[in-house]
């Protein structure tokens, strides 16, 4: 059984997820966003095995360096966005100075790719490459839990007007990959409330299958 805690962080209200195993002693973090003080306080005393980024936009990676140093853990990101962590133009932080200062982190230790399986906290997480919002966006699936980043939201989808975004790719990622999953799968998005695959298939106005 997974324990999943949500921390809504930073000016863009980004969902960071702390995923721990049954005992609650080991965990990993998905998308540690900006202003991560509450998350950092929560993980004190835990063994954090990894930071996994669904993509490298600044609101999702703003807390990476603080958490990596505090927990002594590696960072995983898709190859197509590996250089975004070191480039404020690519991660977007230099584009919105009223929202964020330019953000730079050390490079990620590991690369993610389609079909890869991550062994974390005694569970297996399947990596699904789901581009469209950004070229290296990934979703993580474990049983009936899907961490979808900014690909699929409750009654909405990720924006595609940022550099590297492509509407066709996003719709393909959702319809040809995510909507092939069990309808009972719970979706944990990068912003907003959780939802399910079945609910979005029936009701999402952008991609509903009728």
UniProtKB/TrEMBL annotation:
Superkingdom in the source lineage: Bacteria
Catalytic activity as recorded in UniProt: 3',5'-cyclic CMP + H2O = CMP + H(+); 3',5'-cyclic UMP + H2O = UMP + H(+)
Keyword set, alphabetical order: Hydrolase, Metal-binding, Zinc
Ranges where the Metallo-beta-lactamase domain occurs: 13-191
Alphabetized InterPro entries for the sequence: MBL_Glyoxalase_II, Metallo-B-lactamas, RibonucZ/Hydroxyglut_hydro
Cofactor (UniProt): Zn(2+)
SMART domains: Lactamase_B
Purpose: Counteracts the endogenous Pycsar antiviral defense system. Phosphodiesterase that enables metal-dependent hydrolysis of host cyclic nucleotide Pycsar defense signals such as cCMP and cUMP.
Protein name: Metallo-beta-lactamase domain-containing protein
């Amino acid at each position: 059984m997974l324990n999943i805690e949500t921390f809504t962080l930073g000016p863009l209200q980004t969902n960071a997820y702390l995923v721990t195993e049954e005992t609650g002693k080991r965990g990993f973090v998905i998308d540690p966003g900006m202003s991560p003080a509450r998350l950092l306080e929560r993980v004190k005393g835990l063994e954090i095995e990894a930071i996994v980024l669904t993509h490298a936009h600044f609101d999702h990676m703003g807390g990476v360096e603080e958490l990596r140093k505090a927990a002594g853990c590696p960072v995983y990101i898709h190859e197509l966005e590996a250089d975004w962590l070191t480039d404020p133009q690519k991660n977007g932080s230099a584009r919105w100075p009223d929202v964020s200062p330019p953000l730079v982190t050390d490079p990620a230790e590991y690369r993610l790719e389609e079909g890869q399986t991550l062994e974390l906290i005694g569970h297996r997480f399947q990596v699904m490459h789901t581009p469209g919002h950004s070229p290296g966006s990934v979703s993580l699936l474990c049983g009936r839990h899907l961490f979808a980043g900014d690909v699929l939201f409750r009654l909405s989808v990720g924006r595609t007007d940022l550099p590297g975004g492509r509407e066709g790719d996003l719709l393909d990622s959702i319809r040809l990959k995510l909507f092939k999953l069990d309808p009972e799968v719970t979706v944990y998005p990068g912003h907003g409330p959780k939802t399910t695959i079945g609910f979005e298939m029936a009701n999402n106005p952008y991609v509903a299958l009728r």
